[in-house]
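To: structure subgroup
Subject: Chain for Friday's discussion

All,

I'm putting the inputs and outputs inline so they're searchable in the archive.
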Amino acid sequence: MRNICLSLFFLLAIVGGIQAQIQWPQNKKAAIVLTYDDGLPSQIQYVIPQLDKAGFSATFYLMGKMLKDIDIPVWREVSRKGHELGNHSVYHPCWAKPESKRSEPCHALQCYSLKEMLLEVELMNAFLHAIDGKKERSYAYPCGKSVVGEEEIDYAKPMLEAGLVKSARSVYGGVVNKVEDIRMEMAPVVVVNNKMKADELIPYVKEAITKQGICVFLFHGVGDNFHYTIEAEEHQKLIDFLVENKDKLWVDTFLNVMNHVSQLKGK
């Protein structure tokens, strides 16, 4: 009887371990998502050619205040190649420091109401639709903040509940390998800090493979002088590693990967 109980215990432990693993398409070991914020010129100059040569699709979070007429056909072509154009708001509102002078009209998060923030997300969706003709969107929180007003009202869930976006990216969390730990309104992220090397980023990919998890990278500048940037050569080394491990990795847009997660959640 004792042996039977032990056998059942180990069987349940094994089954539990299997259930904890995320099942990725085509039996891939992990999902890797490359995201880039702010629609910077260096992303067009360096990132797009590197990704296209590797055959990878990525997500570029654009903000309305940075878009110029000459940018529209460029980003339209980026979308046509299979990359995602994500919503990063119109004015990129951040949390103003107490000593800072707020602009008029004020675009600090303290100055927004919930209704105004959702309206801005909706407006940016319209801008993006005019570029790529698509309706489904994902979102990246400007400055990583999901609250508005002096009362710090969270707009993450209301934004999804309103149907404005399907999913949203956070600025923390690292590699995750359980579906229940992936929040649709606040997906986990590995932030690529200034001057990071490929040797610091590749271990996250290896961790995702080992854990059968998801790793979402958050980039800003690549090969430029932006305040969060890595060298184009280091970015290329990461891409090369992903290419070398294509048989194990599902590299796709944030929207596509999160839509898969949503299906696993039964939503």
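Points worth raising on Friday:
DSSP finds eight helices and twelve strands in the chain.
The chain has a mean pLDDT of 92.

D.
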